[in-house]
Amino acid sequence: MTSDTARLGNTRDLRIAAHTAGGRVQLARWIVWPPVLFTVLFFVVPLVVMACVSLWTRKHGALIPDWTFVNYEKFFSKGYLRQALFNSFEVTLLTTAISVLLAYPLAYVLAFKVPERWQRLLLLFAVLPFWTSYVVRSYSWLLVISDRGILNDTLIGLGVIADPLKIAYSRAATVLGFVHFFTMLLTLTIYSNLVQINPSHLKAAQDLGASGARVLWYVTLPLSLPGIAVGAFLTFVITIGDYITPQILGGNTEVLMPQAIMLQISRTANLPMASMMAIILMVCVLAVYFAIQRHLKMDRL
Amino acid sequence: MTNGRITFPVGFYLVVMFTFIYLPVIILVLFSFQQGLLPIPPFEGPSLEWYTKAFSNSRLMDALLNSIIIAVSSSFCATFLGFFAAYGIFKHTPVGVRAVRFVLMAPMTVSYLIIGLGLLIVFNFSGIGKSLVSVGIAHSVINLPICYAIIYSQLGGQLRNIDNAAHDLGASDLQTMVYVILPTMVPPMLAAFLISATLSWDEFIIAFLLSSFDVTLPVMIFEMLRAGLTPEVNAAGTVVFAISVGMAFLAAFAILIRPGRSS
């Protein structure tokens, strides 16, 4: 085995040597660089420039490169800016928690209670509306929960309530829109984790006398933590950076971080302030990433 | 574990969850066929009135065309750049491969809003400004890591031998890539193309930040929302949804075909 690998390695080296000796342009050697250059030019450079601009200020409509932390000081001294970050964290944590609670049972049922030949099809249908534009999805929820929408119409018709529930244009509506989206995403990540669990672990626990609930709590749940962690992290990252869902469903009751950034761009064209808040948002995401990094095994999915 | 039959509580639970997942979609589509002026109950119809209206709305049709152009061109770029990256790494592990992979995958970890803001600043400074081309570049940036990951995951095993065989038989790097590797990589590249086209088609915030007068369909729909709820938005939304789902389905089929296996 070892000598085989070594011989193969040698043949490959010889082959490469032969090609290099030919003096031809080595296409396969430089082909990796155009995409890397593209990403550096249109992703890395803009982020670096944005970080620089966050240290500038805007005075009388002009950008002044005065390299100061005054924007950052402003963020932590102005209550309404700090509040946007707190709001974002609250909405994001609420969304992540509810989505996990809704998605886990669904993924569990799909993986263990549904006959195998139906699993893939049901899973496909469970995540199909995932492929909808944020704009269209948020708008559709607005139709459902508006004062005269189908939900209130049905509940009043059934006599459950007398006056329409005021759900639209509130934090509850924002969270509802997010939860709908991420229940699908989490179902997918948790399901792919559950089906990888070796059934003999569960069988062993049962044979040793564990009840169904104990098997779930002490064996299945711990083994499916990676799927939960990956899904929850993606939920966190996407929710905290999304502008459109709170903008369409949340109304004017509160401002989340992405809305605060967009306000700086569209109202006052204050790119330094917007950049500063974008950097703060990025740092928050990175902090969460490093906090749960060891639980994230993306390649397992 | 499964006994081959869905019990009543499980069935009931599935119905509840699927209702939750599908409720907004059903309402969206149903009220696009509304006859009245508002997309709220009671449902009167069905009528195609609002589809006629949407398809004769020239601004909406311009936005549709822009969305198609952006989705196709940016996904084409992203797919080929992704292939170059994947094939380059597969063929000769480049110097500093960890750094190369990190840079390639990095855009996936940053919010679209932040990527859009960074590009807005750079395009403003450099005089490129806001246009459809700017949106196209940005969509290529966000889709490149996805295309790279999909294509790289399908390179390997058999393909290594096929690639070496082509070289041993005297093919140049270019000939090997174009005549041997590319044809076998059509299914994953098609899947990558379709997934990025779907993401670009649905993307809002970057298109909103980087476009000026030529807007894409999601941006147009967002602007229509300011005038309140109308069944015309439902009709446009239904079209957007149908095309997204169609592309996602095709991508799912393309991903099931694995390259390098005898068919």
What distinguishing features does this structure have?
A: 301 residues, mainly alpha, MetI-like fold, 15 helices, disordered N terminus, B: 263 residues, 12 helices
Structure description:
Chain A is mainly alpha-helical and about 300 residues long. Chain A folds into two domains: about 60 residues, no CATH class; about 220 residues, MetI-like fold (Orthogonal Bundle), CATH 1.10.3720. Chain A contains 15 helices and two strands. Chain A has a two-stranded antiparallel ribbon with strand order 1-2. The longest helix of chain A is centred in the first third of the chain and has 35 residues. With about 260 residues, chain B is mainly alpha-helical. Chain B has a single domain, classed as MetI-like (MetI-like fold, Orthogonal Bundle), CATH 1.10.3720. Chain B contains twelve helices and no strands. In chain B, helix 6 runs antiparallel to helix 9. The model of chain B has no long low-confidence stretch (mean pLDDT about 90). At the A-B interface, helix 1, helix 2, helix 3, helix 5 and helix 6 of A face helix 1, helix 3, helix 4, helix 5 and helix 6 of B.
Q: Which structural category fits the helices and strands of chain A? A: mainly alpha
Greatest interface and its participating residue counts: A-B, 87 and 90 residues
Rounded radius of gyration of chain B (Å): 23 Å
Provide the structure class of chain B. Answer: mainly alpha
Shape, per Cα inertia axes of chain A? globular
Query: Helix tally of chain A?
Result: 15
Judging by the overall fold, what is the CATH architecture of the largest domain in chain A? Orthogonal Bundle
What is the CATH fold-level name of the largest domain in chain A?
MetI-like fold
**CATH class identity of chain B:** Mainly Alpha
Straight-line distance between termini of chain A? 30 Å
CATH fold naming of chain B? MetI-like fold
Which term fits the overall shape of chain B?
A: globular
In percent terms, what proportion of residues of chain A is strand? Answer: under 5%
Instruction: State the CATH superfamily name of chain B.
Output: MetI-like
Q: Looking at the chains present, what oligomeric state does this protein adopt?
A: heterodimer
Classified in CATH, the superfamily of the largest domain in chain A is: MetI-like
* Strand residue content of chain B: under 5%
Structural domain count of chain B = 1
